[in-house]
Amino acid sequence: MIVDRGNAEAGPLDGRAASGRQAGLLDRRSFLVGSALGLGTLGLAGCATPDGMSLTEAQKVYGPLPDEKFPIPAVDVTKVDRKYYRRTVRYETDEAPGTIIVDPANYYVYRIEGDGNATRYGANVGRDGFRWSGDAYVGRKSEWATWTPPKEMIKRQPEAAKYARGMPGGLDNPLGARTLHLYQNGVYTLYTIYATSDPSTIGSGITSGCVGLLSQDMIDLYDRTPVKTKVVVLPA
Fold first, then answer.
1. 87: which strand partners?
2. What is the pLDDT of residues 40-74, one digit of tens each?
3. 41: left (phi over 0), alpha (psi -120 to 50) or beta
4. What's the pTM?
5. For the domain that residue 14 is a member of, what is the CATH number?
6. Could you list the residue range(s) of the whole structural domain that residue 63 is in?
7. Is the pLDDT of residue 4 over 80?
8. What's the structural domain count of the chain?
């Protein structure tokens, strides 16, 4: 079971919880807080470290993607905390290679590579009251998806009502360039791993349970993640 860690809008899901987790309920969620409908600015640092990506390397990894349907600009990596740059790390787990593990307490997403290694990405995660943990899987994938705010979000944030019939894909769309939609037993949970165009959110809790990566990181993860991939969300 996915464990709802504070979302009052909860309903049942299926699946096997990780050892020690309590059974929980959820059935729907609103996607982002109102501020995430706009774009913000980054703050943090960006120098080379012995165990991290150098500034020069980061500028290449997070450079512009002009061939996308909606060209993606470069990330200003001098304003991103270097600990959130993509990198390969040691990560011991019994999960199979390809599994995605979300660590909301530390704002990281891991893709298990095998041999005790994983690719680690900086992330944004659910804010207080919308945190959850448990097992799911990627039920479908989408590029530049249309985003439709749930009714619950519109009640909390009336400004989202203008998108009640759907917000077309684009750089301002909360789902961004790529989306992994999380399912259990054939049922869409309404939770996603998505691409954010707002790098200021990386390393913070701002969503209603979804997980966001920088667009360049999300495209990297998306391209290596087939449908049916297991996703484990750890307790925050």
1. 120
2. 322 222 233 445 788 899 999 999 999 999 999 99
3. beta
4. 0.77
5. 2.40.440.10
6. 3-233
7. no
8. 1
